[in-house]
């Protein structure tokens, strides 16, 4: 009879250092908040800047989440994603302008109704557009990155130009709905109402997405598909259908982000999607391709950093994002929370 | 001799040879064949864009890496020459120094970008170059005290290359410094074009093609994929910067609109795709076709838009400002249906 081997398994926690390293991406946001507070020194300006940074971050996250999932699921990099942002903004703002009476009425209910209608219209249109885009532009070039990039850039240009054809070549200026103008004062800090709304929408959306991914069957399939698509298909799921669903949802989210960004800026141009795509790409890369949580943290970092730097040293704001990207990639070459492996 | 000049990379199609010869002779004798300022302007643009497209093809066609920062390097060359001439006075010294410094700087920047992105996966490169290029474009238009902002700035080039320098008459054409300038641009472009041809037909170029076809296998055979891709990126950036220097020399002006805009990047993509990815000859044909189309077809669109004034949507679609729309459609169609471009077609559908 052989005796049990002579070792005692121990239940040991990871050392503190490793646990911190694991949680580091999540800790970066509070660290940045504290650093910002120390650098700015004035609590009320800090609060104002933080809220606007968070609002910006939430909007970027909404636009970026779809892109990162699409890449994770099917290894498709969609440079045309920016076009959905622009189209969403134009559709949504057209609704706001068409319902000008509601928008100007000093009633919160009517105002929010206008925003809701604008958002729904934008999401419906961009969702359908996303479906068509997947069919016509992306489908024929699966598996070929080079062609994907080329073709989706072509798609971006065509959609952007069609916006010019439909809505005219000029940018459109407009006013936000009545009750969303102005700011509330809180501890001596002026917080724009609309920014608070944007933060709220972003937070709700993130929580809902997390619930869907962690608690539902479809979320499970999507997450599994991102990690190892072939295995999920071998288990009998039709990943292509899932993928088309995610593509449509991601496009609709880009449309939502577009409306929100348009309302934030109070001006829309056909090129706005292209401009936002730069930030979206930065967020997706530093978050780690395929990771929704990573994109969320990345978006908050980008938003906060840009607002703090713009206040502290306006000239540096232009390159703050590139600096952030460089720093993160030096620290973690795959991004903060890479999910996509071996593809 | 000729074979050595083109590095043994023959066009391999009779029509292709004829077209290339026509382009070459047309550009060589442009001041005599096509009199007029606009024709000369177009010829110079073609020469420069052939070089630029060829340098981009080294990256896109031979290495299989998509970069959106090629106009950034192009702009670096242009601003290098512009700034050097502005601060050091007119003369050949600043021109040479400016363009060489810009080329070195461009290669260094390309090296840094490549280090960050190519190391992980090639697809990062496309996204990061896009981000960096747009940041640089914004930076250039913001730092107006140095770069002249959105307006850019003009500068003076040596008197010998200016229109005031008259050197007599040949075949009924007044030879001015402007024509001399054209030949400087043309011959430098031609020489650099042959250098690129040499590079892609060297063992180094063969390795690049192997990486493009199957990077995993190339790595397994023992070639350091990242190193080769990085070197190709640096060479292509330096070449783009030199093309930018020539462009600035020709225009005697630099500005973000002419060197850094995303539209030029798109033109460049289209030149390479239409001409045929993975052949330097394709870049030459693509650049010629695109520049000609841009110069002369946009007028045609304008008159078409006027003619269809009565039909509301159609005339808007045909507006010359919507030139990019048709470019985009053409681009998608050519990626789908002519991935090997004009050259691939002429060589017999390969």
TrEMBL record, chain A:
Keywords: Amino-acid transport, Cell membrane, Membrane, Transmembrane, Transmembrane helix, Transport. It is found in: Cell membrane. Coiled coil: none annotated. One of its GO terms (biological process) is amino acid transport. The keyword Transmembrane applies. One of its GO terms (cellular component) is plasma membrane. Pfam families: BPD_transp_2. PANTHER family: ABC TRANSPORTER ATP-BINDING PROTEIN (PTHR11795:SF442), BRANCHED-CHAIN AMINO ACID TRANSPORT SYSTEM PERMEASE PROTEIN LIVH (PTHR11795). This is Branched-chain amino acid ABC transporter permease. It comes from Pseudoroseicyclus tamaricis.
UniProtKB/TrEMBL annotation, chain B:
Keywords: Cell membrane, Membrane, Transmembrane, Transmembrane helix. This is Branched-chain amino acid ABC transporter permease. The chain crosses the membrane at residues 49-74, 95-116, 122-140, 180-200, 230-254, 266-293, 323-344. The keyword Kinase does not apply. It is found in: Cell membrane. Coiled coil: none annotated. GO terms for molecular function: branched-chain amino acid transmembrane transporter activity. It is a multi-pass membrane protein. One of its GO terms (cellular component) is plasma membrane. It comes from Pseudoroseicyclus tamaricis.
């Amino acid at each position: 009879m052989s005796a049990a081997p002579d070792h005692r398994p121990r239940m040991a926690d990871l050392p503190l250092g490793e646990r911190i390293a694991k949680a580091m991406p999540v800790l970066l946001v509070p660290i940045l908040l504290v650093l910002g507070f120390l650098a700015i020194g004035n609590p009320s300006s800090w609060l104002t800047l933080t809220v606007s940074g968070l609002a910006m971050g939430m909007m970027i996250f909404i636009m970026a989440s779809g892109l990162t999932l699409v890449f994770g699921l099917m290894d498709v990099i969609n440079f045309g994603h920016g076009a959905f942002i622009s189209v969403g903004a134009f559709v949504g703002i057209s609704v706001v302008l068409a319902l000008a009476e509601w928008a100007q009425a000093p009633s919160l209910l009517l105002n929010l109704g206008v925003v809701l209608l604008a958002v729904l219209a934008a999401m419906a249109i961009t969702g359908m557009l996303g479906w068509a885009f997947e069919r016509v532009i992306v489908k024929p070039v699966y598996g070929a990155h080079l062609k994907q990039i080329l073709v989706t850039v072509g798609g971006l240009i065509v959609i952007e130009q069609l916006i010019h054809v439909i809505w005219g070549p000029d940018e459109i200026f407009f006013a936000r709905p009545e009750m969303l103008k102005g700011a509330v004062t809180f501890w001596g800090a002026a917080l724009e109402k609309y920014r608070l709304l944007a933060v709220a929408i972003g937070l709700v959306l993130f929580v809902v997405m997390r619930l869907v991914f962690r608690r539902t069957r479809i979320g499970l399939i999507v997450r599994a598909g991102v990690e190892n698509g072939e295995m999920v298909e071998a288990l009998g799921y039709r990943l292509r259908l899932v993928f088309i669903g995610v593509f449509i949802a991601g496009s609709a989210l880009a449309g939502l982000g577009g409306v929100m960004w348009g309302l934030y800026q109070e001006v829309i141009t056909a090129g706005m999607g292209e401009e936002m795509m730069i930030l979206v790409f930065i967020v997706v890369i530093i978050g780690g391709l395929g990771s929704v949580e990573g994109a969320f943290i990345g978006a908050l970092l980008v938003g906060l950093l840009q607002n703090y730097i713009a206040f502290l040293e306006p000239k540096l704001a232009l390159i703050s994002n590139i600096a952030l990207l460089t720093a993160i990639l030096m620290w973690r070459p795959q991004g903060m929370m890479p999910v996509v492996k071996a593809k | 001799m000729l074979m050595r000049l083109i590095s043994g990379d023959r066009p391999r199609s009779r029509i292709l040879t004829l077209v290339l010869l026509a382009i070459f002779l047309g550009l060589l004798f442009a001041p005599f064949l096509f009199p007029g300022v606009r024709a000369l302007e177009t010829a110079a643009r073609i020469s420069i864009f052939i070089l630029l497209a060829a340098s981009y093809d080294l990256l896109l066609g031979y290495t299989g890496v998509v970069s959106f920062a090629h106009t950034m390097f192009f702009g670096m060359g242009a601003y290098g020459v512009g700034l050097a001439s502005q601060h050091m006075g007119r003369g050949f010294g600043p021109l040479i120094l400016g363009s060489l410094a810009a080329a070195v700087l461009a290669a260094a920047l390309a090296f840094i970008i490549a280090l960050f992105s190519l190391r992980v996966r090639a697809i990062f490169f496309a996204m990061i170059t896009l981000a960096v290029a747009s940041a640089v474009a914004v930076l250039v238009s913001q730092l107006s005290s140095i770069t002249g902002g959105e307006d850019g700035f003009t500068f003076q080039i040596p008197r010998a290359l200016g229109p005031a320098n008259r050197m007599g008459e040949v075949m009924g054409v007044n030879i001015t410094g402007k024509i001399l300038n054209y030949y400087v641009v043309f011959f430098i472009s031609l020489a650099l074009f042959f250098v690129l041809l040499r590079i892609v037909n060297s063992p180094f170029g063969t390795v690049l093609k192997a990486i493009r076809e199957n990077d995993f296998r190339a790595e397994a055979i023992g070639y350091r994929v990242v190193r080769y891709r990085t070197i190709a990126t640096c060479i292509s950036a330096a070449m783009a910067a030199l093309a930018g220097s020539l462009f600035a020399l020709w225009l005697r002006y630099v500005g973000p609109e002419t060197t850094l805009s995303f539209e030029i990047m798109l033109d460049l993509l289209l030149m390479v795709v239409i001409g045929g990815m993975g052949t330097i000859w394709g870049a030459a044909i693509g650049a010629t076709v695109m520049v000609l189309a841009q110069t002369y077809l946009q007028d045609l669109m304008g008159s078409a838009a006027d003619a269809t004034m009565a039909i509301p949507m159609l005339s808007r679609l045909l507006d010359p400002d919507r030139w990019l729309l048709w470019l985009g459609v053409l681009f998608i169609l050519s990626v789908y249906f002519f991935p090997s471009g004009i050259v691939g077609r002429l060589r017999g559908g390969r």
